[in-house]
Amino acid sequence: MDDVNRTETGNEETGRWKNFNSWIKYYFNYECYMTFLNGCYSCEWQAQQKKKARRPLCCCSLRERLFYPWLIMSFCLSVLLFFTWIETSNEFNGFDWVVFLGTGVWFFWSIVLLSFLGILAAYTTLLLISSLILKNTTPTRVYIWINFSFSKIYYMSDKYLGYRDQKHLISVFIQGTSEVLGFLLCWEKQQLYLHWYHKILVLIMIPFFLFLLWILLTFWKDRWLTIGLSLQVFSPYIHLSSISVMVLLSWPVAFYLIHLEGEARMRRYQITSNERRRNTCCSMLTKLRALQVAIGVPFFLILLCLYVVPFGTYSPCLQEKEKLAPKPTFFGHRGAPMLGPENTIMSFEKAVEYGAHGLESDVRISFDGVPFLMHDYDLTRTTNIKEVLPNASSRHPSLFQWSFLTTLNAGKWFSDAWIKPFFRMKPLSEADKERARNQKIAKLTDLLAIAQKEKKLVIFDLESPPSKHPSRLSYIHLVVRVILDSKIEQHLIAWLPGSEREYIKSKAPGFQHVGTFYTLEELAEENITRINVDYKRLYYNGLREYKAANISINLYIVNEPWLFSLVWCHSIQSVTTDNIEVLNGMTHPYYFMTPNFYLFLWIFMDILSAVFIVSIFHFHWWRESQSEKILQGITSYTEASSASLQNEVLEIMGTPAPFPERERETASSKAVIPEVVNETTAPTMHPTNDVGQPVPTEPAFEPIQAPISEANREATLQTVLPILEANEPAVPSVEKPPPET
Q1: In 3-state terms, what secondary structure has residue 574?
Q2: Is cis: bond before 557, omega within 30 of 0?
Q3: Best CA proximity match to 335, nearest among 419, 435, 451
Q4: Going by DSSP bridges, is the β-strand pair 358-365/457-462 parallel, antiparallel, or unpaired?
Q5: 441 and 406 Cβ atoms separated by less than 8 Å
Q6: Closest of 361, 317, 318 to residue 561, by C-alpha
Q7: Between these two residues, 694 and 97, which has the higher pLDDT value?
Q8: Region 572-576: what's the mean pLDDT?
């Protein structure tokens, strides 16, 4: 009983699956697929008959061909800008701040631009891929031909073969037709028409992309250095990944090259059989060979370059573990601005908590001569001045009295704002939120007290006061006096300002003087042993000459783990960072690899990829050869078996064989053609139904080779003879004239 239930359940599931499969075939057919592609590309969502191009190698009109390079240009520009903006993610916060200065609105403008460029890149990629798919799609007549041929084979095999032979024949035919379908997929063209909406948008995008490129080349030239640095880190992995991509690309390349070779053979056959079309076929052969060269040569050249590119690859992350320098130390950029409001006591204490070696800040002078910590040119972003004194929110911070500055809140913008200062900032705990809400603007002496207590270095940018400020000419002396009065150890001060260094050396000889991107001669003249430079300067020989001169290097601002890994592998001593929480948790540089391990991966990937590519080409060649053999075998045996069976039937009936030349003959026995004595011709009879309407008959199909025994042959003849006798066409003949007397 259980077996019966299981059988019934299995039958129900099989029936449901068949219905589901029929539903898929009904709704997701070739016509729907082509309608969707044409709708995306041409904005025509109605099913239309495919228009075939006039030329086999040209699939669109002259206007479309002239516009196609602009589409490719927009695609290249969009991908280039999208990739550039991704690689400059370390600068996103700085970009947001620059936009804030111009708009007065704080938002993640960098993420907006990244999303916008990503959408445009995806849009142009979709148009390009749609055009390529539309160029290489199968017309409906292919499916009609396949269904018609399959029906004929199934009908004839069911008539002449057993179930096992029938199943084998159908599987062979499917394999052969799949190869023919592959040829037609590449050769059949879909005429392209890009809707004018798309054309207008593409033409608008090109000047927009060029404008962005002009901005990058004019105002942010050093952004291109970031791409060079990223390639230094990722070059070994890009190399190995590119080899894998080439292996994947070898499948369509091999398929298309072998398809073109098959087309060339077909054209050569046409030249032999149709001499009148020699010139046309020769030109087509030339085009086919040119396509093979245009596709195959670049593919193999790129592959060859990838095989030998490690000889010219330089990556500082390829080194022995014993030679890896110690982990760089950290300067908290305005404290820890992802953990607390920047330039506040909370922010600096968080930086110390996460292992900062030094504290970095920006110092300004109040109108009454008090040095305080503030980065921006106004108080709008980091205080609540719009609530307290809206009319004065755009004034320079140094134009306020310190008594007023102490009344401002410097933490609510960080804890309560719906737009956080950093996109990837982690949520704050309730205790940290409450602590941040109570933060005030900090003085320089507050920072010095923390540094003295924790024995941390202090480095700061000293901004000159605006004009008409009381301390405009004496602000450096004022700051030095405040530092000395704080009783901090002088060696904890890393003095960065470049003005009045002689005065500083005389008043505070213990300060560590820090230079910028000075030459080695200038550094030696000023007796400076530490420099603070932009991380992009690392692109120029990795600052090798400074390291050789025992100059301690600090790079700013390093937030991304991949960039910090590069700095670590370059043996840099320290970095200034906003992301101290993440970078401090790194125990080893990312993307680090020993040379021997990379050599092993390089050789292994080269050998493995070569084996795969050769196998793929051999597989496609073998499939093409098998398909040709199957088609030739089916065609040749169909003709031979049909002729032999018809001749055998006609011999039994006493009728001469119409194709004696196809029979195997020997030298001793040849067929004798009897003379025909009739001159009348009988019309061909067509079967009709009961009403008298003609009934469509099965299309003529030639039987397929199968082992037939003598008994089966006799039975077949007994079955076929009555049919042939009933529908026997009269053979035209001529009466034999009487003998002359």
Answers
A1: strand
A2: yes
A3: 451
A4: parallel
A5: yes
A6: 317
A7: 97
A8: 95
Distance, CA of 364 to CA of 475 (rounded, Å): 9
Beta partners for 372?
364, 443
Q: What is the pLDDT of residues 675-711, one digit of tens each?
A: 433 444 444 444 444 444 444 444 444 444 444 444 4
Q: What are phi and psi of 358, to 5 degrees?
A: -150, 170
DSSP 596: H
Half-sphere exposure of 349 (CA within 13 A, CB side): 12
DSSP per-residue string spanning 25-82: HHHSSHHHHHHHHHHHHHS--S--PPPPPSBTTB-B-HHHHHHHHHHHHHHHHHHHHH
Rounded to 5°, angle at Cα 412 from 406 and 413: 105
Query: Both tokens of residue 468?
Result: 């008409």
pTM above 0.85?
Answer: no
Q: Which of 203, 210, 45, 38 lies closest to 127 in space, CA to CA?
A: 38
- The packing angle between helices 140-160 and 30-42, to 10°, is 170
- In three-state secondary structure terms, 733 is coil
Pick from 352, 351, 329: nearest CA to 338: 351
In order, the DSSP letters of 353-415 are HTT-SEEEEEEEE-TTS-EEE--SSSSTTTS-HHHH-GGGTTS-GGGS-HHHHTTSBSSHHHH
Q: Which among 408, 391, 394 has a CA at the least distance from the CA of 466?
A: 394
How many Cα neighbours within 13 Å face the side chain of 408? 28
The residue with tokens 């006493």 is 654
Q: What is the DSSP string of 281-304?
A: HHHHHHHHHHHHHHHHHHHHHHHH
- Hunting for tokens 């142009």 — which residue is that? 124
